[in-house]
Design a protein that fits this description.
Elements (H helix, E strand, L loop, with lengths): L2 H15 L12 E7 L4 E10 L2 E10 L2 H14 L4 H15 L27 H15 L4 E3 L2
Parallel strand pairs: 1-4
Antiparallel strand pairs: 1-2, 2-3
Length: about 150
C-alpha cells in the first residue's frame, strides 16, 4: 500500500470515527439537503453566515464513511472563510475530484487532497462531493443538492 493510500485510509477512518461538527445546530442561517439516490447518501449542511463569513458550519445525515469523512473535513476547512472563498474552494474540490481528471493535488485544498484516492473508485466520487454540493446549494439559497 502506498503512503498516499495509507494516509487516505487513516484520514477517512479518523474522520468517520471522530466526526467534526456533526449534528444539527440549534440555529443557522442557511441549510440544504444533499441526496445521492444511487447509493443512499443523505447529508444536511447547516451554515451560519454573518457579514459574508461562514461563522459556523455543521452537518448531519446518514451516509457512508467516505461521505461522512468528507463532510467532517469540509466543515473544518470552510469554517471562518468568506462565502466567496468557500465557493472558490468548492470549485477547486470539484476539479480535484472530477471523474477522469488527472489532477492529483491542489495546494489550496491542504489536507482535502487526501481524498483524491477516492477517484480510484469512480462510483464513490459522488459520496465524497455530496456535502460540498449541499454547502454550495445552501449558500446559494437552494433547499436541495444532488450529485446527479
Amino acid at each position: 500500500m502506498t503512503d498516499l493510500n495509507k494516509l487516505y485510509k487513516q484520514t477517512i477512518l479518523e474522520h468517520n470515527r471522530n466526526p467534526r461538527n456533526f449534528g444539527k445546530p440549534e440555529s443557522w442561517t442557511h441549510h440544504a439537503e444533499g441526496l445521492n439516490a444511487i447509493c443512499g447518501d443523505l447529508v444536511n449542511v447547516y451554515l451560519t453566515i454573518e457579514e459574508d463569513v461562514i461563522s459556523s458550519i455543521a452537518y448531519d445525515g446518514e451516509s457512508c464513511a467516505i461521505s461522512m469523512a468528507s463532510a467532517s473535513m469540509m466543515t473544518e476547512f470552510i469554517k471562518n472563510r468568506t462565502v466567496k472563498d468557500a465557493l472558490e474552494k468548492f470549485e477547486l474540490f470539484c476539479q480535484l475530484m472530477a471523474k477522469g481528471s488527472d489532477v492529483k493535488h491542489i495546494d489550496d485544498l491542504a489536507a482535502l487532497n487526501h481524498l483524491v484516492t477516492v477517484k480510484k473508485f469512480p462510483s464513490r466520487i459522488k459520496s465524497a462531493t455530496l456535502c460540498w454540493h449541499a454547502m454550495a446549494a445552501a449558500i446559494n439559497g437552494q433547499a436541495t443538492a444532488t450529485t446527479e
